[in-house]
Amino acid sequence: MSSLPIVSITRRETFSSCHRLHSPFLSDEENKKLYGKCNNPNGHGHNYVVLVTVKGPVDPQTGMVMNVHDLKQYMQSAIMEPLDHKNLDQDVAYFKTVVSTTENLAIFIWDQLQKVMAKPNLLHEVKILETEKNHVVYRGGNTYPRKKFNSSNLHSSHHDVSSDSD
């Protein structure tokens, strides 16, 4: 039996969303200092570009790793419907307890794609271009334990957050 060639396919979509970078684990003063203008109480918006890459063997019968039409449908369901023209912090349940950084947005998109894909093992990478200068890449997996929101942890002395400022 011969091995099959491995190929990557990437599809690009764009969506617009707004959010406010604000951690419930920090005081208002700490949030303003850490996130700067991205902590504006009225939020701010982005025209996000998201690139989803699937990777796998080329099926000798179809000549495809995945039907691009299927990938388009998965992205519509996992990205466009829940995120496009939404306030991430108010309209997406996940971000009610998770800071809406681009890093966390990439994790959310990965998790959503995993739920809708017929073959989630083909998902290789989620890349988000938040601005012309800032890009985030997520390839799945949990290397570090994730801290869940707990009101008793508010204003603790150790914080693992990152900014998406310009």
TrEMBL record:
<feature type="compositionally biased region" description="Basic and acidic residues">
    <location>
        <begin position="157"/>
        <end position="166"/>
    </location>
</feature>
<keyword id="KW-0862">Zinc</keyword>
<dbReference type="GO" id="GO:0006729">
    <property type="term" value="P:tetrahydrobiopterin biosynthetic process"/>
</dbReference>
<dbReference type="InterPro" id="IPR007115">
    <property type="entry name" value="6-PTP_synth/QueD"/>
</dbReference>
<comment type="pathway">
    <text>Cofactor biosynthesis; tetrahydrobiopterin biosynthesis; tetrahydrobiopterin from 7,8-dihydroneopterin triphosphate: step 1/3.</text>
</comment>
<feature type="region of interest" description="Disordered">
    <location>
        <begin position="147"/>
        <end position="166"/>
    </location>
</feature>
<keyword id="KW-0479">Metal-binding</keyword>
<dbReference type="InterPro" id="IPR022470">
    <property type="entry name" value="PTPS_Cys_AS"/>
</dbReference>
<comment type="similarity">
    <text>Belongs to the PTPS family.</text>
</comment>
<dbReference type="GO" id="GO:0005739">
    <property type="term" value="C:mitochondrion"/>
</dbReference>
<dbReference type="Pfam" id="PF01242">
    <property type="entry name" value="PTPS"/>
</dbReference>
<dbReference type="InterPro" id="IPR022469">
    <property type="entry name" value="PTPS_His_AS"/>
</dbReference>
<dbReference type="GO" id="GO:0046872">
    <property type="term" value="F:metal ion binding"/>
</dbReference>
<keyword id="KW-0783">Tetrahydrobiopterin biosynthesis</keyword>
<protein>
    <recommendedName>
        <fullName>6-pyruvoyltetrahydropterin synthase</fullName>
        <ecNumber>4.2.3.12</ecNumber>
    </recommendedName>
</protein>
<dbReference type="GO" id="GO:0003874">
    <property type="term" value="F:6-pyruvoyltetrahydropterin synthase activity"/>
</dbReference>
<keyword id="KW-0456">Lyase</keyword>
